[in-house]
Amino acid sequence: MNRRKFLGAAAAGAGVSLMPRVATAAEGELGARVRRCLDRALAAGSPSVVCGVIRGTQRHVAGASKKGPAPGGRTVFQLGSITKTLTATALARAVCSGRVRLDSPLVLPPAFPVPRKGPRRITLADLATHTSGLPSLPPNLLAHADPYDPYAHYRLDDVAAGLAETALSTEPGSTYQYSNLGYGLLGQALAFDDVDAMLRRKVAVPLRLTDTTTTLRPDMASRKAVGHLEGEPVPDWHDRVLSGAGTSMFSTADDMIRYLDAQLRPERSPLRDAIELTQRPHFTADQDLRIGLGWHISTLPGGRTMTWHNGGTGGFSTCAAFERRSRTAVVMMVNTFSEEADDSPRPVDALTFGLLAELIELVEA
């Protein structure tokens, strides 16, 4: 998924020589495969990387670094757009409780004009499946943005002003077009001006995601990796308005393993019905991609169904993917910004998908 550059932010360089690494990894075939994946992430330009995997009943988290201590399961990274699946889970909870319907129109306070194109209004399902016709970003976001923290200045008044300038590119419900603005508005539709607390209350707390939050506690700050852009340290992103899109969420590999375990076995989760609803396909983008609520659904070689989402902020890149039938999942977090090239995916995405396919083969062997 294309992550457009913010005010000249460049992709992290690939092909960097592999430097000595410090790693925490268990012995055995599973650990060896993870270690190889970590090495490849370092070679692709990541200062450090952590990878968590689930294979049946096994859980394994390992990290590696070009220099200094290796990150571990409790090391804090910015999560990026994987957060959208949490926002979608909050929507699914509201649907399962009868509070809203997926075909409910997007409703915001009167000062926030919702754009229209054609006869049908934007629905909550349109926002959750990226079919609203909204652009990726508000038209007035970047004009006064700090290139290293592009959402920090944006306030609710700016959202209202931006919506007044926003035109839909397609009629709602007709076309897949990835939109951070759409997910930011979905968060506001579910909990106006209280999105971060809502995500903690409705998703993070029930799933025991203790380090998944937009506000760093002191103990989390001491465990946080430093983000990088082109090899240089950069600040974290901050956002209180469009945070439902994943612009400012922090998390850890341990939390993401718990989250992915709930995706693999929703029957053991307190959010079973909501999780099942998010994983159900709700829109077909093309022959290779279907869209759940937040989650993207693709087919792996051999016909297995992979459910996934990736993410990135100015100094971090992440990817999470799972396959339910084999109970296999992978999450990878690196502390550098990167984006896909015209002819290749981001390294973190390619490595995550490749490792998932390898682990599925091990289960089937």
TrEMBL record:
Q: Which UniProt keywords apply?
A: Signal
Its domain of life reads Bacteria
**PANTHER family documented for this protein:** BETA-LACTAMASE-RELATED DOMAIN-CONTAINING PROTEIN, D-ALANYL-D-ALANINE-CARBOXYPEPTIDASE/ENDOPEPTIDASE AMPH
Using the record, list the residue span of the signal peptide; answer none if the entry has no such feature.
1-25
Q: Does the keyword Signal apply?
A: yes
A Pfam family reported for this protein in Swiss-Prot or TrEMBL: Beta-lactamase
This one is known as: Beta-lactamase family protein
Question: Residue ranges of the Beta-lactamase-related domain?
Answer: 35-345
